[in-house]
Design goal:
Helix content: over 70%
Oligomer: single chain
Radius of gyration: 23 Å
Number of domains: 2
Strand order of the largest sheet: 1-2
């Protein structure tokens, strides 16, 4: 039997060109990144403004999530006893530091790293070492944030200054790298980072230092610019360090907790080494006071 000649023929589905699809996908990712960054910025700013216990609770939650992501990376997605011990140690550091027991927190920080490395049951010794290093990385950053906030006269401003400069560094590196492109900064470590992004991050950090000095009516604008450049270098080094960690374990992101950015470790990889460095320098110097800021 012949088929009906007037049978309706379904139209072919429209297929977007690769350029159009890529542009739409890229715009969507940028929007998600901006929204996530806005939420995180609001959380940090609000906790700094209201102080105790909101800032400490924020650091407590962040440390727990970062420790979980670190443990998941080092165990290739299977968090076991050593990973849970890492989380417990990092939370203990935050708890002790939050209640002005900085000496005890420092002791747990120092002893916790080798203890977890020794006690961790992993197939490779190097994995145990990396797992123990998470105490220094996550716990050290959490201790540094609380130490700066609680122990020094202008601690809240110091923490805000760190987040401000690192955020502008990330924005400058991202925008400049996308707009200019060019040769890769460290192709074996992070194939997406470029030299143009590196210098863009430095330029934005310098502007961040200048703007902070002007907004706070500080006369030493040159010092703020120089300090911001140092922070930018350390932050971008921290970004490369986490790239080394993820490449070692074959992971693209540290997790999925921050939409558009991957995990929380991906989002604060520049803040962590800067927070540790500034807290250590402040401890050696005896505090953070208005002239420094």
């Amino acid at each position: 039997m012949a088929r009906s000649a007037d049978r309706t023929i379904a139209p072919e589905p429209a297929i977007a060109s690769p350029a159009t699809a890529g542009a739409a996908d890229g715009s969507g990712k940028i929007l998600i990144r901006l929204l996530s960054a806005t939420v995180l910025t609001a959380l940090v700013a609000g906790s700094l403004y209201f102080g105790w216990p909101f800032f400490h609770l924020l650091i407590f939650g962040a440390a727990g999530l970062m420790a979980w992501e670190w443990a998941a990376l080092c165990s290739r997605g299977r968090v076991a006893g050593g990973g849970y011990a890492l989380i417990a140690v990092c939370l203990a550091i935050v708890g002790l530091a939050s209640f002005a027991m900085s000496g005890e927190a420092s002791l747990v920080l120092i002893l916790g790293a080798p203890a977890i490395a020794v006690l961790a049951r992993t197939d490779r010794m190097s994995d145990a070492v990396w797992l123990g290093a998470g105490v220094l990385y996550v716990g050290g950053a959490a201790w540094g944030a609380i130490a700066l906030f609680d122990m020094y006269r202008d601690g809240a401003w110091a923490v805000a200054w760190i987040f401000w400069v690192v955020a502008l560094t990330d924005i400058g590196a991202f925008l400049t790298g996308r707009a200019v492109g060019g040769s890769r900064l460290a192709p074996r470590l992070s194939p997406n980072k470029t030299w143009s992004g590196f210098f863009g991050g430095l330029a934005f950090a310098a502007v961040a230092g200048l703007l902070f000095a002007l907004a706070a009516d500080r006369p030493a604008a040159g010092f703020h610019i120089a300090a911001a450049l140092v922070v930018s270098l350390v932050a971008q080094g921290g970004d490369l360090f986490e790239s080394v960690l993820k490449r070692r374990y074959g992971a693209k992101d540290s997790g999925k907790s921050v939409p558009g950015h991957g995990g929380l470790l991906d989002r604060v990889d520049g803040v962590v080494p800067v927070m540790i460095l500034v807290a250590v320098l402040a401890s050696l110097r005896g505090g953070v006071e208005t002239p420094w800021l």
